Amino acid sequence: MLLAQARDHLTYALQPIVNVHTGSVYGYEALLRGVETLGIPNILSLFDLAQALGCSRELDRTLRALALERFAEVPGSARHKLFFNLDPHLIEEEDPETTVELLRQHGLTPDAICLELSEHVDLTANPAVARAISAYRSHRFHFAIDDFGTGYAGLRLLYEHPPDLLKIDRFFISGMPEDHRKRHFVTNMVQLAHVMGIQVIAEGIETETELLACREVGCDLVQGYLIAYPQTHIESLHTRYDRVAEIHANNRRDTPSDVALIERCLERIPPLHASDNISRLFDAFRLDKTHNIIPVLDSADRPIGLIHETDMKEYIYSHYGRDLIVNRSFGRALQHFVKPCPTIDIHDSADRFLEAFSASANPAGLIVTLDGRYHGFVSTMALLQLIEEKNLAAARDQNPLTKLPGNNTIHEYLSRTLSLRSEKWHLVYLDFDNFKAFNDHYGFRRGDRVILMFAEAMRQHLNSGRWFVGHIGGDDFFAAIGNADLDQVIEQVQGLVTKFRSDVQSLYDPEERAQGYLNARDRFGQKRQIPLIRCSGAILEIQPGDDYGSGDELGRIIATMKSQAKRSTSGLTLRQHRQGQTKTLPDSTWHETGAENAIDSDSKKENHRRPVTDIA
């Protein structure tokens, strides 16, 4: 009776799981609907009732058939994956042949399904569970651990039964952009998964900031209401959700992509499919004398791994060996010779490519995917070339005088900083007062010595390893540090400007140094007393959750702060965003000599150099 009602009243909704970069659909999760029409309050009660009636196994098969029937209605379903939750109480009795037969009825292969293991029931240390998973894997079924991080056996399950995919529970995703601890948890989960060659799905994405944060920490796939609600109408499903790409395109904090750089290092090695006859493997190695590896894909062009020529030598170079392996009765297929290989998306950064390579044991290179499909291969030598080009690009951006990172690198750093809204940051903008008069009076060579002196002082005083320092151009500099104590930041910046204020006097002639000023013309051509050079600075504290939008507001705030700093005795101002006020910091141990009251018109002007919004 229950089974008949289940077939008549229950159905499945499908929720898309998409690529975090492009919104292209990777698969759909099957979510049961209609339980309440049976007079049963929830899904767990349905399973409890089936167990009491002794028909749990039959109900599970019925539900699996309904899910596959619904999935098969999706256009191009064979190119995607169906995510189906296994009943943890029945996993010991799992028989993959039953599911294989259901798939065959719809023209699908095991590549088209991913079975989800729940973390809420202990599946570890049970030989029957291990045997069931092994049996499924022998048929090329994929597995995912669901709701990772909220159960009590997650790490052990991850260790004993490494999945193909890891689904991070909504608990950690909700509020992650603002929650520093959640961000660290998710970052470390992603890194652990990637080290093990596992892709990561972030569940429950509901806001744009959550999507951006998931991409930032390295999640591969996402699902949630932001992308699409579960759909019972197949016509409402799409193969790509353009909103994902649009959100990234509209994110002004996004850093420049390495895609063009990676494409240049990519090799288009012709792949084989796991279903191909093994004789095609011999032909592939015979025809391609350049490569000693062949990528192997599943039926949907998703990478499985590599076959290495060295592993086939005993068959390739032996007449009887080749005849033996080609013989169908020998029972060896391509998948028996496939070795795992790190797989990475074309949209990931060059740094992420290096991390993936370093995390694997003696890899031949990296398989590169586009929307989850095979796109090419990056060999070890090509990866070294990629990193070298990346480093050269960074070197080209260095300021030619100080060798500090230039505007592009500063822009990338600032974009990442503004996107990490769960962390505290201190941004410091520095420039010189009275520099133009010095440069005009002594010439640009001595002016360059001033700039070099300050750059070296920055390296010495902001050298904890956590500081980022850059040279915007001319006498404008930038520094930043994350998660540091405010008093420590103020102390280090004060030490920098005080030391520079003292050291720069050595670049004046003795007469000007003794009198404490220059007799020089200001920018209006009027001759007057110009004070000695000092450095002014604006320190901006950004607390978790602070949002500066596109950076325009940040630029306006910094310009005002720098103007106030130039008019102050100490030359330093501080603004804590949530207090909304800029205050002048007290003077340090420095005491001016000479013309204390002489005021350079440069110190009154607003930021007259490159607008801060150009780098914000």
Automatic annotation (TrEMBL):
Q: What are the residue boundaries of the CBS domain, all occurrences included?
A: 262-324
List the biased-composition ranges (Basic and acidic residues).
601-616
Lineage: superkingdom: Bacteria
Q: Name one Pfam family in it.
A: GGDEF
Q: Which SUPFAM superfamilies match?
A: CBS-domain pair, EAL domain-like, Nucleotide cyclase
Q: Which UniProt keywords apply?
A: CBS domain
Q: Which residues cross the membrane?
A: none
Q: Where is the EAL domain?
A: 1-244
Looking at the record, which segments are called Disordered? 568-616
Q: Which PROSITE patterns match?
A: CBS, EAL, GGDEF
Xref: CDD domains: EAL (cd01948), GGDEF (cd01949)
Question: What are the residue boundaries of the GGDEF domain, all occurrences included?
Answer: 423-564
Q: What is this protein called?
A: EAL domain-containing protein
Native source organism of the sequence: Thiorhodococcus fuscus
At the highest ranks, the source species' classification is: Bacteria, Pseudomonadati, Pseudomonadota, Gammaproteobacteria, Chromatiales
